[in-house]
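Reviewers of the previous submission asked for a worked example of the structure-prediction workflow described in the proposal, so we include one complete record here. The input consisted solely of the amino acid sequence. No template or homolog information was supplied to the procedure at any stage.
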Amino acid sequence: MIMQWCGRLCLAGLLMGSVMESVAANTDSPVQDEARELIERMVAEHQFDRAELEDLFAQVQRQQAIVDAMNRPAEKTKTWAEYRAIFMRENRIAGGVSFWQDNAEALRRAEQTYGVPAEYIVAIIGVETLYGKITGNYRVMDALSTLAFYYPRRADFFTRELEQYLLLTREHQQDPLAHKGSYAGAMGYGQFMPSSYRHYAVDFDGDSIPDIWRNTTDAIGSVANYFARHGWQAGAQVVTRARPATDFTHKELNSITKPAHTLAEWRSWGLTPVENLADTLTATGLEMEGEDGLEYWLGFNNFYVITRYNRSPMYALAVHQLAQALYTRRHEGEAEK
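From that input alone, the workflow returned the following structure tokens.
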């Protein structure tokens, strides 16, 4: 249960207590200098209470395992064949069909409201948390604090997320120590970062609070809204297989930027879609190390939208293929009835 958090929050004590040594004990630490600067900004801009946050952050713990996990993301350590195998297992397909059946009305309404097919909403939740079964065991406060102050490569990003999380919990009168999530601080069925929650989470069942932790209806609506707000085109294709010429090479393969080259251009460079599609469509060329060698694909705007959720072409392709498997399995089941 989410406990009530009474009182105003502030980032003042971020490095107090167990997060690291106190400022008084080590005033030369550059990390603590960053904390003091952030503290002053939070107090000035958001009117947080310093004393209350000192008490809050005295309970925050640095987690070295989080830093270690950030340094070995699956998208960078596995081939496409290995990565795909994680998500195309029977339990994830069968579980997705069951989740779809249990939440059919919410998925139907989300598809009508936002234009995002149900199978892609279910696939995102399936890839992220196995339909809510694996949402993460790290306290969000611990994860974001650890990464804000002990992971310099992305410290700015996670400091902003920590700020957003404190604002979020204050807005909803929630205990910031109560939420658990991934090692990166992502939360709920769809693994929203705090900034994504504040921008895209929706109250899809009308009870006034977007609950992405326990409420599947809100989680479904929030994922669909995220896709819609990032430019999902209803009815448009996501990706297609492509056939390379024997001498095909291109430096812009596997880009996560918005597609900028037309199919006519890709054809001229030696990468031809296996389907008969309009030359004017823009796409990103993809090269993946599959079970039987290199695979080539062309990803369209909707493929790019999936990469806004996780900036990895392998992730987006896994979501797409799981979505297709879910659609096929569900409609096969309906045909047998």
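Residues 313-336 form the longest helix (24 residues). We consider this example representative of the routine output the project will generate in years two and three.
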